[in-house]
Amino acid sequence: MFKPKLETLKIRDCWSLRRLPADRPTSNSTPPPEVDCEKEWWTCNQWDEEDVNHHPSLYKPGHSKYYK
Questions:
Q1: Which residue from 5, 4, 35, 32 is spatially nearest to 20, judged by alpha carbons?
Q2: Which residues contact 50 (CB under 8 A, 6 or more apart)?
Q3: Does the pTM of the predicted model rise above 0.85?
Q4: 25-44 residue pLDDT tens
């Protein structure tokens, strides 16, 4: 089944959002999606194990210096 490739997520002021969509790369050459978010939100996110496709290693966090 074909699905669009998730490249970037921009998350701002969504403090009740605690989980990201499960997204495992289709190949080793596919870069992980970048998550542009507040650093505090990233550390408070609820993560599961890698085998259920919901783990911080499956994403590339990006934190702006203008946000917490």
A1: 35
A2: 57, 58
A3: no
A4: 666 677 888 999 988 889 88
Q: Is the Cβ–Cβ distance between 62 and 31 less than 8 Å?
A: no
**How far is it, in rounded angstroms, from Cα 27 to Cα 25?**
5
60 closest CA partner among 40, 27, 34: 34
Cα separation of 34 and 8, whole Å? 5
The residues spanned by each domain of the chain are: 33-68
Residue type, 15: W
Alpha helices in 1-68 (DSSP H): 39-44
Tokens of 27: 């190949």
